[in-house]
Write a structure and sequence with these properties.
Radius of gyration: 21 Å
Bound molecules: adenosine monophosphate, glycine
Helix content: 25-40%
CATH topology of the largest domain: D-amino Acid Aminotransferase, Chain A, domain 1
Oligomer: single chain
Amino acid sequence: MNVLVIGGGGREHALAWKLRQSPRVDRVFIAPGNAGTSQEGRNVEIRPSELNQLLNFARQESVGLTVVGPDEVLAAGIVDLFENAGLRIFGPGKEAARLESSKSFAKHFMVRHGIPTARFGEYEAAGVAKAALDKFEFPLAVKADGLALGKGVIIAHDRHGAEAAIDDMMERRRFGDAGRKVVIEEFLSGVECSIHALVNSRSCLVFPTAQDHKQLYDGNRGPNTGGMGTISPSRHLDAGLLKEIRDKVLDPFMDGIQKDHLRFRGLLFPGLMLTKDGPRVLEFNCRFGDPETQVLLPRLKTDLLDLLEATITEQLDAITTEWDTRCAVCIVMASAGYPGDYETGKTIVGLEKVEQVEDVKVFHAGTERRGDRILTSGGRVLGVTAIGDTLSAARKRAYEAAEKIEFDGSYFRHDIGSI
Ligand code: AMP
Ligand code: GLY
């Protein structure tokens, strides 16, 4: 079977790498991919926003399964487009993808189906939002309703900060149309974690746990990023807590999509806060996490194609999944300036030194090939993943590998998996 992976980051490199290992996969296409994915299959020069071109390509190349990485492509309705054309694709339909692309849609879904989440209000005018601040205590969270590259949440510690965030989103439209509506939420404290589960209308298969490190600097300080590193398993989730999450979040979610007739055959990745009163859902992501995928897939022993296919054919119950019991750590190497403005076009050296190292895999994110050089082309450049018998062994191996790779202005955190 030919498969098409849509996207060009580290998550998509990991998906393409794993799919290529399937004995049933003939060709892997990645649109648009990066320098790393070109070693797993063929990069295709189509932007993820060009849905009709992607459809034409999938038809021409007899693609048997398309896997979508980025949330905005799901929100644009690619799953409906492909399915209406009779092509198989992994991901939620456009309406179900609103669980990620609209915070207020997700909040109403949670309230309707009894899924624990923070108390909230939604507002379509700045004046009304500001007046409503009286109903909350500080700190509180101000959220742009739509997709904002993970930057649309401001934790405000006082009225001044909250009003500035509301103005920024609603008046100055810092996140464009994503800020037409805002959600204001009570602040939750606790440990943050997330889970990944394959979901269709009949069943749900939960992956081992993973944990992201979202802040830029060591000690979980500095601005939020797309993710600076991950570990798997997480150190905060035990079997008891997982059972509670299944009972309070996943089971009601499965009931909810049935009752609301939401077409969801893809990956559900809820972000959770483990509060003293139990888990609360912060958000739903409807796609694989980046860089969570870079620690989950190296631990997966089962054929990923089997899993993705079983999700869309509603046969997940028939599958036994095997995971490597060892630990994985992924260190993200970023360009200087990320998550703000960053430079690109820097030559990356040292990749060949880690290519042959056992239990280490470098997933490319913002890279491009120019002749025989590999250059940086994005904020997050590489994800260096290592496996080890213990978390600290995996950590040590990942850092030893990351130290061998260099580019101008390269930055990574030094405490992934030890905080
Ligand atoms: P979200 O995109 O909704 O997951 O929010 C991004 C980040 O903001 C989360 O990962 C949390 O760190 C933080 N956050 C969001 N909502 C809340 C909340 N109600 N209380 C505390 N922190 C929050
Ligand atoms: N690592 C966080 C995300 O993919 O949203």
